[in-house]
Amino acid sequence: MSASSISLQGMQQAEEELQVAAATLANVNTESASSGNADTADLSSDAVAMIEAQASFEASLASLNTADQMQQALLDVLA
Q1: CA 74, 76, 79 angle in degrees (round to 5)?
Q2: pLDDT, tens digit, for every residue of 17-29?
Q3: Residue 51 structural domain
Q4: How many separate domains does the chain show?
Q5: C-beta of residue 75 within 8 angstroms of C-beta of residue 43
Q6: DSSP structure string for the chain
Q7: Amino acid 40: pLDDT
């Protein structure tokens, strides 16, 4: 498995985690309105999950950029 595919897989996983956290935050009002309990949502943990997903995405992107630079340098040496 190449470094590029690993980086892309990490970016996809981070995107999925971000979507789950965002959907949870978006549904807070509907869940609390139907159950009558507004304290059931833990907004801080969802916000932290979104920040973690963003950091994971950025790390995977940096890894992808590094892999691209390494491949370009190898092509420059071989050319």
Answers
A1: 105
A2: 999 999 988 887 7
A3: 3-78
A4: 1
A5: no
A6: --HHHHHHHHHHHHHHHHHHHHHHHHTHHHHHHHHS-GGG--HHHHHHHHHHHHHHHHHHHHHHHHHHHHHHHHHHHH-
A7: 52
